[in-house]
Amino acid sequence: MSVEAAKETRGFETEAKQLLHLMIHSLYSNKEIFLRELISNASDAVDKLRFEALNNGDLYENDPDLKIRVEFDKEANTVTISDNGIGMSRDEVIQNLGTIAKSGTAQFLSNLSGDQKKDSQLIGQFGVGFYSAFIVADKVEVFTRRAGAAAEEGVHWESQGEAEYAIENADKNERGTRIVLHLKPGQEEFADGWRLRSIIKKYSDHISLPIDMLKENMGGAEEEEGKEKEEKAPEYETINTATALWTRSRSDITDEEYNEFYKHISHDFSEPMKWSHNRVEGKLDYTSLLYIPARAPFDLYNRDAARGLKLYVQRTFIMDDAEQFLPLYMRFVKGVVDSKDLPLNVSREILQKDPNIDSMRSAMTKRVLDMLEKVAKNDAEAYASFWKEFGEVLKEGPAEDFANKEKIAGLFRFSTTHTDKDVQDQSLVDYVSRMKEGQEKIYYVVAENFNTAKSSPHLEVFRKKGIEVLLLSDRVDDWLMGHLTEFDGKSFQDVGKGALDLGDLDTEEEKKEQEKIEEQYKDFVARVKEVLKDHVDDVRVTHRLTDSPACLVVGEHDMGAQMRRLMEQAGQNVPSSKPTIEINPQHPLLQKMDQEADEDRFTDLALVIYDQANLAEGGTLDDPASYVQRLNKLLLEIPA
Asked: Are strands 490-494 and 486-487 parallel, antiparallel or unpaired?
């Protein structure tokens, strides 16, 4: 196939077009990041070559000197970034440059608000890499050839960052990728050696490969006066430190270097909240550098998304997302692990079976938890921000990590009746320290949202006695409490499940009074039970209500109302069960109902009270029209 025959023009996929538009219009305030992103991509390409060459040394093509090169041309107003890494085939160019092969792209784009500052932060979360070239360039050309392919299998790709791009075959003798940026008018500052050097030192000094530039007196700058006329071979110099950052001593690394390395591996535009850099020697020999981001990525709640640490073995890159080193609930953690014990040909299957991996996983999991404990203890504001971003994911922990269940629970933050605010800032340690004398359980209520939880009728007796209750309203909460059975020796109790027994928190006089009321109203209870027999499992006199006429409770071991609704919304089959209704016979409405002789009217009142109890806990009615009809009928009977 001739070069000409292979040329074609193709359109970007929709999401790519939108991202290109955002790149050009949202990130103008931080234009220089384009160089960091393109150098980072080049570094990844070289890492991939090293990995593939472990099994096929011919891929080096007699050029084992791996490097990245940055060049500029003032007259042509171009900047060129090249590498001798793995390169791309024609299909890979179309896949990597013409589309965005990431799940959740549409969801990400739907979160964009049009606010340039906010959108630029979101773009940082997404990690756009190559597309950042269009911040400063109005035309981008890519020349690439995959290692091991013939010279005539090179590819030339170009685009002006609009609706389409052109792609054709092109001879390329050297493997790897060369990206040429044709700078926009007004962006001439980047076709300058000093400017490019300062950006490389600022953002990419930690890259473990040499980043070379032409020495300034060799043609990158103006010719020196009196320069000898004979041609000299160009001389290049390495701009960066070119040492893998994690291999250096912690005392030699500045905070700025740690921050820039995080941005390199995560493609996040923000600085991390916290990091931990450790060297382990002994039975196992490895180095880990773990980061906790300040902001959640767009795909945090996609449990199937790529995650994990960058794995190196003896400084040789092995894989990008080695998920075996941290549990799934820590999928937000970014970082690097470099082992001296694993074989260079390690695979995901080997990682799953190697007992050493379990030891490393356990140690790094504890390290992350320790980092979070330190932040929670020493910087409440920073931890509050972390909890807002990652709290719901951390709540997956007790189900996945039994060994650290107590430690994880200590990191949780909740809304409680102590503050009655829609801010999750109270820890279980705080709760236990405020427990009443004789209180043996940690009480909580689960609802669809904070206001429903805060106003739940189940809380009335607790508020009366000054007993604190956790107000849970995250979607994961009901599921969480199925796995979080105790903390600090105290068991958890859902105030909306089972018969309420406050133990020593009730006085003997209160218990006797309760028994007296139960006996006094047993005929009334039987009457209500007959009316509601198709709707409820049982009717009983309440010990938890002081102001409301009734509330619904589920069995001690039955599925909670919130979990039931979530499963039904997800189309799951839910085992059928009926709630119990607890009635407050001392409420004026029920006192009046007890005196009602008309059985039809009594039935209407009982059904209205049942429906109201259902609504009060955030439920929905099976037959809203009948409820409205009954209520209107009763309202019309009120004397004028």
From this structure: antiparallel
Is the pLDDT assigned to residue 288 strictly greater than 70?
yes
Who contacts 231 (Cβ-Cβ below 8 Å, separation ≥6)? none
Q: Strands of 550-553's sheet, edge to edge?
A: 538-541, 580-583, 550-553
Q: Which residues contact 282 (CB under 8 A, 6 or more apart)?
A: none
Phi-psi region of 358 (alpha: psi -120 to 50; beta: other; left: phi over 0): alpha
Q: Name which of 303-317, 374-388, 444-458 the model is least confident about.
A: 303-317
Closest CA to 528 of 471, 613, 461, 410: 613
CA distance 108 to 300: 11
Residues 242, 69 contacting (CB under 8 angstroms):
no
Q: Is the dihedral of CA 159, 87, 16, 207 positive or negative?
A: negative
In the numeric block, the tokens 């001389």 are attached to: 235
Structure tokens at 618: 């955030």
- Tokens 């279980």 correspond to what residue? 428
State both tokens at 209.
Answer: 């490969």
The CA-atom distances, in angstroms, between 614 and each of 446, 553, 554, 609 are 14, 10, 12, 9
Distance CA 128, CA 100 (A): 9
Residue 38's contacts (CB-CB under 8 Å, 6 or more residues apart) are 81, 129, 130, 132, 133, 179
For 558-580, letters b (16+ CB in 10 Å) and e give bbbbbbbbbbeeeeeeeeeebbb
pLDDT per position as a tens digit, 408-439: 999 999 999 999 999 999 999 999 999 998 89
Any alpha helices (H) in 506-546, and if so which ranges? Answer: 508-520, 522-531
Q: Which residue blocks in 99-229 are alpha helix, DSSP H?
A: 105-110, 116-126, 193-203
C-alpha closest to that of 408 among 366, 442, 446, 378: 366
pLDDT for position 511: 84
Which SS3 state, helix, strand or coil, does residue 279 take?
A: strand
Write the pLDDT tens digit of every residue in 157-202: 999 887 788 999 999 999 999 999 999 999 999 999 999 999 998 8
In terms of Cβ atoms closer than 10 Å to its own Cβ (0-12, 13-18, 19+), residue 292 is buried
Q: Write the CA distances from 104 to 345, 388, 422, integer angstroms.
A: 32, 21, 29
Mean pLDDT of 230-234: 67
